C-alpha cells in the first residue's frame, strides 16, 4: 500500500532523532555568527592593544622632541618624530589592518596628545555584512617633574670669551690679543657683600665673531634649560635653582655670612689671618733715574743726591714717592749730571698676621701693606680662602675640612672656618723666604695689572637655592658681572656646588623638603670649556700657592694632579649625598676627569657649538623631568 505525504510527515514528527537534527541545522547559523564574532573580537583586541602602544610611543617621542617655544602648534620636528615612532611600532599590515592614521597635536598645557585610527578586516563577520571594523585610540604624553633642586656650576674663566669652536691655540691667541677691560660691578645685588657693589671688575672682552662667545652660548643654554623645566611643571611642583660661578676661587662671602657671621674669621673683634704681605722697612731705594751726560772724568764725577722734593730721607708724599733733583752719578762708564732720582720706600716681604674683623664688615679699612701717608683703603669683595686641607696628597681623610660639604664650622676651631681673601695686601715672592725690596718680583695681587691678567679673579657671587622665575634666571646670567676672567680650577666649583646641596651642611635650611612631600631630587650641572690649569702665582681659594703651598706642599710640579684629585674626591662626595651630577664640556670630548665626575659616562656631554650647548642643556632638563603617558 502506498504511503501518503501526510502519513510521512506524521511519522517524521513522531521521530525524535530527526527532530533534533532539524533544530541543530537551524541553530547553526547564530552559533556560527557568535563564534565568528569571538574570533574577530579577539583580533580587534590585539590590534587595538598594539595601536594604543604605537600611539603612546608616538606622543612620547613627540613630547621629547617638542620645541619649548610656548606656541600652540606642534613643530615639524616633533610631528615627524612622533609619526616615525608610531609607524615603527605599528607595522604595515599588522593582523591585516589597513589605513592606519596617527595625528599628534600640542595641547593647551604644552604637552602632546595623539589620535590613532585603523581599519581591521573581519574574517567571519563579513558573511554578516560587516566587512571591516574601525578602531580609534587616544593618547597623551607629558613631562612631569618632582620637587627638584638644581645647582649650575659654571666656568667663567677668561677662555669663555672665545668662540665655542675655537681650538686651544686660537683661543689663547684671542685672549692674548684682547686684554681684560675694566667695568663697574652692579650697585645692587642681594648675593653680594657691600665691598663688591659698585667696585671695579675686569673681564676679557667677548668675541663677536661667528655666533659669539662661549659665555654668550652659556647664557642662552641656561635659559633654554629653565624653559624646558618650566614647561614640565605644574602649580604643585617646587623647583629651585642655585648658581656657582668659579675660576680660581668662588665669591661665597655673602652666602656664608647670611648663614652665620661666625663661620668666617673676623666675626670676633681682633681676629686675624695670615697673608703673604709686606710692611715698611727702614731706608729707601731708587726706583728710576734720568740724567744727561756731562762728560766729566770719573775722578771729577762726585756722587751727588741733589735736592729732595719731600721731607727727609725715608719719608714720602701721599703717592708713596719722593725725588731728588740736580744730582750727579757715574754710571755705565760716563758721568751724568742734572740727575733726577725717583725714590720709593723699602718693604719687608713675609707672611703677616693681619686683623680682619673690620674688613669682613664691608667697611673701608686702612690697607696695612701701604704707607699710612697714602691713605690707601681696602674693601672685601666677598671671595674666600678655604678651610684647612691636606697638602701634597691625592688621598684625603677627615682632616681635609675643605672637602667635607657637611662640616659645620666650630667657632673655637679656626681650621674649620673660612677666611676672607684680601688681594690688596697679597704680594708675590720668589720663594717662601722673607726678603726686603722695593717691588721687583713682588707684584701686588690687588693691582689692576694683576687683576687684568687673572691672577686674582673674584667673580659674580654665588646664589643659594631659591625658586627663580625665568626672568630671575635670565637676570643672573645676563648680569653685567657675569663675565669671563681668570684660570680654571674645577675643584673650587665642585666644592661649592656640592656644599650648596648638602642637606647636613651650613646650607641645611636651604635643603629641607616640603611637609608631606618626598625629599627633593638634587642635580648639579657642571659646565667648563677647559682642563684644570692651576698656577703657583695665582691668588685663589687656597691662597698664593707658590708660598702658601696648601695644596702642593711645595711640589708645584704636580699641582694639576693634586687639584684633579680634589675635584674627583668632591664628585664622589656629591654622589654619596645622592646628587645627580652631569658634566658638560665645550670641547671635542670630555676629559677623563669630567667623565669620572658624572654619575655615568652617558652624563658626560660635550659640544663645540653654541646651538649644541643649548641642545645639551635641554637634553639634561628633559632627563631631569620625567616623561610619561598621561592617558
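^ Assign residues to that structure.
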Amino acid at each position: 500500500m502506498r504511503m501518503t505525504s501526510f502519513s510521512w510527515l506524521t511519522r517524521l514528527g513522531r521521530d525524535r532523532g530527526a527532530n533534533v537534527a532539524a533544530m541543530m541545522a537551524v541553530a547553526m547559523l547564530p552559533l556560527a555568527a557568535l563564534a565568528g564574532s569571538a574570533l574577530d573580537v579577539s583580533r580587534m583586541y590585539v590590534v587595538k592593544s598594539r595601536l594604543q602602544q604605537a600611539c603612546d610611543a608616538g606622543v612620547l617621542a613627540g613630547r621629547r622632541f617638542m620645541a619649548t617655544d610656548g606656541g600652540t602648534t606642534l613643530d615639524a620636528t616633533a610631528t615627524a618624530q612622533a609619526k616615525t615612532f608610531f609607524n615603527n611600532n605599528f607595522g604595515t599590515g599588522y593582523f591585516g589592518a589597513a589605513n592606519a592614521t596617527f595625528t599628534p597635536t600640542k595641547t593647551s598645557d604644552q604637552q602632546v596628545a595623539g589620535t590613532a585610527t585603523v581599519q581591521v578586516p573581519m574574517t567571519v563577520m563579513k558573511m554578516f555584512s560587516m566587512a571591516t571594523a574601525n578602531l580609534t585610540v587616544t593618547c597623551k604624553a607629558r613631562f612631569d617633574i618632582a620637587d627638584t633642586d638644581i645647582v649650575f656650576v659654571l666656568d667663567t674663566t677668561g677662555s669663555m670669551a672665545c668662540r665655542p669652536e675655537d681650538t686651544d691655540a686660537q683661543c689663547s691667541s684671542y685672549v692674548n690679543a684682547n686684554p681684560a677691560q675694566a667695568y663697574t660691578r652692579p650697585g645692587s645685588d642681594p648675593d653680594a657683600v657691600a665691598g663688591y657693589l659698585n667696585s671695579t671688575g675686569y673681564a676679557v672682552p667677548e668675541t663677536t665673531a661667528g655666533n659669539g662667545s662661549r659665555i654668550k652660548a652659556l647664557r642662552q643654554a641656561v635659559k633654554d634649560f629653565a624653559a624646558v623645566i618650566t614647561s614640565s611643571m605644574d602649580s604643585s611642583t617646587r623647583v629651585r635653582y642655585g648658581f656657582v660661578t668659579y675660576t680660581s676661587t668662588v665669591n661665597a662671602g655673602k652666602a656664608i655670612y647670611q648663614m652665620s657671621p661666625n663661620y668666617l674669621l673676623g666675626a670676633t673683634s681682633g681676629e686675624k689671618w695670615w697673608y703673604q704681605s709686606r710692611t715698611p722697612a727702614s731706608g729707601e731705594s731708587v726706583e728710576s733715574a734720568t740724567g744727561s751726560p756731562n762728560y766729566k772724568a770719573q775722578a771729577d764725577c762726585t756722587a751727588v743726591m741733589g735736592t729732595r722734593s719731600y721731607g727727609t730721607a725715608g719719608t714720602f708724599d701721599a703717592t708713596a714717592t719722593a725725588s731728588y733733583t740736580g744730582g750727579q752719578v757715574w754710571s755705565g762708564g760716563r758721568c751724568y749730571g742734572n740727575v733726577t732720582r725717583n725714590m720709593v720706600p723699602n718693604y719687608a716681604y713675609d707672611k703677616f698676621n693681619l686683623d680682619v674683623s673690620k674688613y669682613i664688615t664691608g667697611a673701608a679699612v686702612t690697607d696695612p701693606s701701604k704707607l699710612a701717608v697714602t691713605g690707601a683703603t681696602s674693601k672685601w669683595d666677598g671671595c674666600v680662602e678655604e678651610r684647612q686641607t691636606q697638602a701634597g696628597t691625592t688621598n684625603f681623610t677627615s682632616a681635609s675640612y675643605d672637602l667635607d660639604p657637611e662640616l659645620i664650622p666650630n667657632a673655637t676651631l679656626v681650621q674649620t672656618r673660612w677666611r676672607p681673601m684680601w688681594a690688596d695686601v697679597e704680594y708675590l715672592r720668589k720663594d717662601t723666604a722673607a726678603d726686603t725690596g722695593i717691588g721687583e718680583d713682588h707684584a701686588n695681587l690687588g693691582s689692576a695689572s694683576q687683576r687684568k691678567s687673572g691672577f686674582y679673579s673674584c667673580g659674580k657671587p654665588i646664589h643659594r637655592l631659591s625658586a627663580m622665575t625665568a626672568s630671575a634666571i635670565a637676570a643672573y646670567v645676563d648680569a653685567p658681572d657675569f663675565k669671563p676672567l681668570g684660570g680654571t680650577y674645577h675643584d673650587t666649583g665642585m666644592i661649592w656646588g656640592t656644599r650648596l646641596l648638602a642637606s647636613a651642611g651650613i646650607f641645611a635650611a636651604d635643603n629641607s623638603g616640603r611637609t608631606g612631600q618626598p625629599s627633593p631630587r638634587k642635580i648639579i650641572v657642571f659646565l667648563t670649556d677647559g682642563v684644570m690649569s692651576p698656577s703657583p702665582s695665582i691668588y685663589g681659594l687656597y691662597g698664593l700657592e707658590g708660598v702658601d703651598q696648601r695644596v702642593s706642599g711645595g711640589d708645584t710640579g704636580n699641582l694639576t694632579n693634586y687639584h684633579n684629585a680634589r675635584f674627583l674626591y668632591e664628585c664622589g662626595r656629591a654622589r654619596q649625598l645622592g646628587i645627580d651630577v652631569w658634566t658638560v664640556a665645550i670641547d671635542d670630548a670630555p676629559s677623563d676627569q669630567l667623565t669620572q665626575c658624572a654619575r655615568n659616562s652617558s652624563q658626560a656631554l660635550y659640544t663645540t657649538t653654541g646651538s649644541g650647548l643649548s641642545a645639551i642643556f635641554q637634553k639634561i632638563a628633559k632627563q631631569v623631568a620625567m616623561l610619561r603617558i598621561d592617558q
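DSSP finds 13 helices and 23 strands in the chain.
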